[in-house]
Design brief:
The chain is an alpha+beta fold. It has helices spanning 14-25, 58-78, 102-106, 121-134, 247-255, 264-273, 318-336, and strands spanning 5-10, 30-34, 49-51, 83-85, 88-90, 96-97, 111-112, 117-119, 138-141, 144-149, 154-158, 163-171, 184-195, 202-206, 214-225, 230-238, 242-244, 280-290, 297-301, 304-308. Strand 14 (202-206) and strand 15 (214-225) form a beta hairpin. 41% of the residues are buried.
Length: 337
């Protein structure tokens, strides 16, 4: 183990894990530091994210399209499957008209993404970690408590009493990173529904909704199957985002606040109206950082790169986005040195 790493990457979510692998495969000595996913709240601590290439902002479309071959290559390299090709339907955008199917017609789902699917975030992280370790990266499962910047290096202190020394830091801690600019934290509630099977596995993103207080309603449907029941994960996005303005409100949301979202009755009625027979319901918290223009921000100061603002879209393009962030950050570092 080196006494001085080239990079410490902070945060072992999809972006941090992708950044660690990219740096390690380019020959850098890397220490990836992140909390265990079952010990610290995070929005990627589950097994489903919609992968889609159609997005109102072409910035996210380009990143998602670039990420697909990267994910497929990573699956082949590591033998860990985290991506499933699955139909993703829209009620307003897309390029592939659908055939007449009662479920889709009833719910106004009239277009299909050409490359849709479902990503398992935790399996994605496992694959990225495996690939990074194979390139020599060191991974520590702990929480950063403080960072001390010295003349030509940094010291990263962790809760277990250890210290990692490095020449540069790449900080991808998401909700736990120091905010940059005008970013805000947006809260959401996830509904996990068990129901009898009645449609093929699919995802949908609906934006044409009767309630003006709901901006989007989307789902990964039929995630886990057995002979008699299926599971679907629904999320509603408020037209006016519910903001968490402090670490205390963030913690409170993940502890119990998500159970009291004012639009939960609407969501349950809408799920039933769409044709789902609810047999069991579980709620889960979600939160992400949002920026004024819906795109991530990067700040570099004294070889310390900080990423902020996944805007709810980073998992589907973790590798392509981390590559872009690192390239942009290194260019900033060169221009200011």
């Amino acid at each position: 183990m080196p006494s001085l790493f080239d990079f410490c990457v902070l945060g072992n979510g999809p972006l941090g894990a992708a950044a660690a692998w990219q740096l390690a495969r380019e020959g850098a000595s890397v220490c990836l530091i992140g909390a265990r996913h079952d010990e610290r709240v995070s929005s990627h601590n589950d097994h489903s994210r919609i992968y889609r290439t159609r997005h109102p902002d072409p910035y996210w479309t380009a990143l998602a399209e670039a990420n697909l071959p990267m994910m497929l290559e990573l699956e082949q390299r590591t033998g860990i499957r985290f991506f499933r090709s699955t139909p993703v339907y829209y009620d307003g955008i897309g390029n592939v008209p659908l055939s007449d199917q009662p479920y889709l017609t009833r719910n106004g789902l009239n277009h299909q993404d050409p490359c849709g699917g479902i990503i398992d975030p935790l399996a994605y992280i496992r694959a990225l970690n495996k690939a990074a370790r194979e390139q020599g990266a060191i991974i520590r499962s702990t929480v950063v408590t403080s960072i001390h910047t010295l003349t030509c290096s940094h010291q990263v202190h962790t809760v277990d009493g250890n210290v990692a020394r490095c020449k540069a830091i790449a900080d991808f801690r998401g909700l736990y990173a120091k905010p940059i600019g005008q970013g805000t934290t947006v809260a959401r509630t996830t509904l996990l529904i068990r129901h009898p099977p009645f449609h093929e596995p699919h995802c949908f993103i609906r934006t044409v909704l009767l309630d003006p207080q709901v901006g989007e309603f989307f789902a990964c449907s039929h995630l886990d199957e057995d002979s008699s029941t299926q599971t679907s994960k629904f999320v509603l996005a408020d037209a006016q985002p519910h903001l968490l303005n402090s670490s205390e409100t963030l913690q409170a949301w993940f502890q119990d606040g998500y159970r009291h979202h004012p639009k939960l009755p609407w969501a349950l009625d809408e799920i039933r109206r769409m044709g789902f027979e609810i047999q069991d319901l579980r709620l889960a918290p979600c939160a992400f950082t949002k920026t004024y223009d819906g795109r991530p921000k990067v700040q570099v100061d004294q070889s310390h790169l900080r990423f902020y603002g996944c805007n709810g879209g980073a998992v589907k393009c973790a590798q392509s986005l981390s590559r872009q962030v690192l390239t942009q950050g290194l260019m900033q570092a060169i221009s200011t040195s």
